[in-house]
């Protein structure tokens, strides 16, 4: 549940979501809208919202999107958010599917 995430975990979730938005090297309007809805749901403060906006302009560094950082108790939430992201534009690109399947394996 989103309300159980700490501030650090919320940012990590959004960093993962933004990384998945970049999986096919293109951010579509629907993906951007999904991220903004999630930011509102998580009630991020302005400085953290700026970080997320930066991730929508420039993808997060691969080394920062480390599945080992995902708390065990939130793994299903992260997987669900990643899946919602890759399907938010109504089309799952092969790169998005591969990245999602890899995340599933790493978090299992």
Can you put this structure into words, describing what you see?
The protein is an all-alpha fold. It has a single domain, classed as TerB-like (Orthogonal Bundle), CATH 1.10.3680.10. Helix content is about 65%, strand content about 0%. The chain contains 5 helices and no strands. It has helices spanning about 5-20, 30-40, 45-55, 75-85, 95-105.
| Helix share bin | 55-70%
**What distance lies between the first and last C-alpha atoms, to the nearest angstrom?**
19 Å
Q: Give the ordered list of helices and strands.
A: HHHHH
Low-confidence stretches: none
CATH architecture descriptor: Orthogonal Bundle
Integer tally of domains: 1
CATH class: Mainly Alpha
β-strand number: 0
The CATH superfamily turns out to be TerB-like
Instruction: Report the β-strand fraction as a percent range.
Output: under 5%
Largest sheet, if any? none
Shape: globular
How would the blueprint of this fold be written?
Elements: H1 7-21, H2 29-42, H3 46-57, H4 75-87, H5 94-107
Helix pairs in contact: 1-2, 1-3, 1-4, 4-5
List keywords for this structure.
108 residues, mainly alpha, TerB-like, 5 helices, globular
Summarize the entry for a quick read.
The protein has helices at 7-21, 29-42, 46-57, 75-87, 94-107.
